[in-house]
Amino acid sequence: MHKKTITIALAGNPNSGKTTIFNNITGTRQKVGNWPGVTVEKKEGSVRKYGHDLTIIDLPGTYSLTPFSIEEIVARDFVIEESPDVVIDIIDASNLERSLYLATQLRELDCKVLFALNMADVATSRGTKIDANKLSELLDVPVVFTIGNKNTGIDSLLKAAIKLADSKSKISQKRKVKYSNDIENSISKLQNFIEEHIEQTLPYNMRWMAIKLLENDKIVREHIRQKTGNKSLEIFREVETHRKHLLDRFDDDPEIVMTDERYGFIAGIIKEVVTKSTKRRIDTSRNIDLVLTNRFVGFPIFILFIWIMFQTTFAVGSYPMEWLDSGVNWLSAILELSLPDSLFKDLLLNGIIAGVGSVIIFLPNILILFLFIAIFEDTGYMARAAFLMDKIMHLIGLHGKSFIPMLMGFGCSVPAIMATRTLESNKDRILTILITPFMSCSAKLPIYILLAGTFFSANAGTVIFLIYITGIILSIITGRLFRSTLFKGADAPFVMELPPYRIPMIKSLIIHMWDRSKMFLKKMGGIILVGSVIVWMLTAFPRNINYSMDYNEEINKINASFTEKQKKAAITKLKLAEKAEKAEKSLMGRIGKTIAPVFAPIGIDWRGSVALLTGFVAKEIVVSTFGILYASEEADEPDALKNALLASEMTSLSALSLMMFVLLYLPCVATIATIRRETGSMKWTLFSIVYSTSIAWMAAFCIYQGGKILGLT
Amino acid sequence: MLLSKMKEGQTGIIVHVGGNNGALRRRVLEMGLTKGTKIYVEKYAPLRDPLELIIKGYHISLRVEEAADIIVDKL
Prior knowledge:
The complex is a heterodimer of chains A (713) and B (75). Chain A is built from 32 helices and ten strands. Chain A is of the alpha/beta class. Chain A is elongated and about 105 Å long. The termini of chain A are far apart. By secondary structure, chain B is an alpha+beta fold. Chain B has helices at residues 22-30, 64-67, and strands at residues 11-17, 38-44, 51-55, 58-62, 70-74. A five-stranded antiparallel beta sheet of chain B has the order 4-3-2-1-5. Chain B starts with 10 loop residues before the first strand and ends with a strand. The interface between A and B is large, with 42 and 33 residues.
């Protein structure tokens, strides 16, 4: 027996159990990446079975192969261009009629198709019996029964796939969808016309190409244009004649008529293969839904679920976060002691470990959040959440599903932006990514606490609350603004399946969680490492600073003269002053001073601008930078920084302006890396940075200058 | 009547799927809301939009504005 790798593509509707079957076949030997050029996830796995090397490709779940969404384009292109040896269409047996729509489209493509009738046990329990032999005969396609979540039928499915791949027989041309006479006429005429006029070989089956041209399929048209150049005009003219003829005949667009007729064809099949018992059965899923999307308790339950998710992610997640944090601290303490002082040590400790460490501590949050999201998705609750929230989110021009990422943004933008993957429409995804950073993340809270606590001590809580509200309002404004400008055009249709509730499989949940975390660690790691090293260089260079005085000598003088107690205080003071001067004269300090004029109109001095710059690494650092610059890092004086701030030129008004700026300005390096990854575009990443920072400046400007006009301080 | 005017628990047969947005219209059809399909209005969301239908043995939700493009015969 010859040995070659067999490529098997898994196609199927969303919620058909495709991913479960993929997980069952490949186990943990999966490679997760993106399809080239798009942010649609591509899963691939390799196994050795029955003497063959099998490569399994999980195509995106789609309802159809019309190039309506990016997923459909990806799935279709793969089948046409990569010509996998076998395409397995996973069909949800309890949802046969709609599933067959994709099946008939696959059947029209020139590929070896095999049907997996999945979850037939559910169908049987609902009183539906499917005659698989009849189905196989009617469509001339092998049919195998599988129960994905019980891992049955997978072996026979693979065996059937291998057999089909090895079979030399031609793909049967008969038993495809038959359209009405007028359409069939146009198809065959068009087919002949193309065959006569094109010498080039196109990767398409002729009948299929004629059908797609009649349906006015943009991608097929474009392909033909590229391949045949001027000749394409002749073809398109011919297509137009036929389309016009059919439009006159049916009084509707051919693609609409053909969709109708495909369902008509399917209805005929259903009549022959399905027998339904009329006995009424309890529909558990429907009963659950009567509660979960109930007019009165639907929302309270939803809020409860979200609250649990939020609390677990950020409150429970804070424990392992602390362990990781102390692990990082422990590591740097060990290295601090064991390594000799050098530039390298400084880089390692203050650059690499501090920078990467500040990001890796988010790992527990990410794991927990994605566990919840996986549970919501796999049980089918995510669709209900979108169902409940859509009315509200639609006001911003977004889809109901955008709610979860936006809410998670209050915790941390990194997992929040990663959560936008649950959105199907690319427009919705990018818009949600752009407005999520306005949800004030938890790392910004210490800054508000410091500033509001210092300058608005009595009303600190209210001020912080208002800051959060401002973020929300600005995200709504941004959403509406972008929807009517950048993302103009019709909203993505909401048309969404509400799949039956299912008990999630632990294996799937873990694989889902693991994929996300691996992605976080791998992809974020590199960018954050580079970012941290750059920021470290800016703060560590130049090495030879021209200090205003010789601190060491001053310290020596003190050592010689003062009493023990005074000595300690005086030395600490000097050391802090040295640190402050070092920060001031570092590259970062110089940049801060250089750009200080930009911040002057919004009432932020050079210290503020340096602090804001360092906030680029992580927002938590802003507070510690203030600590260094105001030379107040003193353990025995807890309110030292507060007092220093009060004594400085900063006023309540400039503090408010600073907080507003922090709320809105450029996200931290980890978030930027995530935006880059999830939008797949440098353009959108830069846009996000520029947009948020300019909004931040304008908002702070309004507050500061407006406040000054009103006579506030 | 328009699908968007149907009440919870009512059944109807789709007569015509209209609307100016061709892509949306096709999407609606591809999901199985074709002429002659029997629909059951399962419920409206708590905020009265979107609504949930049962067609061809499965549950689907549509926005009210999308349902306003669909004409049905009430049964």
